[in-house]
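Mods, move this if it's the wrong board.
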Amino acid sequence: MSGGLGGTGLGADDLYLMAHHETSGRPFLQPRPLGIGLAGALLAELMLGGCVFTADDGAVTAGRTWPGDDLARQVRDQVAAESGQHPVTDWLQFLGQNAAGNVAARLERAGYLTRAGGRLRWRAPRWVPVNPDWAFAPLLRARPATDAARPLTAHAAVLAGLAAGCGLRFRLDQYLPVAGRSIEQSVSALTPDLQQLTAAVQAAVDRAVLAQRT
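Not the wrong board. Structure tokens:
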């Protein structure tokens, strides 16, 4: 894929686009599950790049590698400032508060989103995809997670696992192959810290949904 169809190469960007309608920009998820999922994707970017990892006690710890992206570097530095003190679940809750806005701003800078509305004081601005095909393409990048005819990539496995964990499995079921690998099989091929992260996202989203219902 060329141009905008190739994406930014960043998991949180792909998950954000997958979680919103490709033309209207309308979110498919409530704010808390969306924020938790995107927080997990931001941490996954850092784990894949060797910038953060989980210690034996489950705490998220910063490594010695700095990412090139500004947002990822900001998250890495936040982890470094609190290194060895907080487990994955704490970081999902903390980063999830602003993850949607931060990732949308990054996509805007990359040319994938543009702001619409917000001219009236009582109407908040919203982000709308610049090109519907670019916004739909993350579903294609997740395809190797369940298509046994394609080599499994860490990006696809993480993207599919986090999407399913935060409530977007229906999107995957619509567009990914039904035969071949399951999402769970793909996630099981990831490193232990990424497996732990995807499980933590699922558990945190389940708790958030339950809290809304009570």
